[in-house]
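User:
Hi there, any thoughts?
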Amino acid sequence: MTTIGHFCNGELLTDDTRPKEGANPATGKAEKTVSLSSKKTMKSAIGCAHAAFLQWHNTPPNKCAEYYVPV
């Protein structure tokens, strides 16, 4: 079963201590496991997001668009 976690610095962070099954609402079948975060993992994810913001916040919009729009 696929585990959904937090993507941080190119790495998937998951906590194995609090898994929660995620069900497909159409079928009711469990298809994925969601990794509920510990405080440590959440602080790490917030730190990654803040670092990414600091790296990108002064990037001109046309430069950012190169990463989102097919050239």
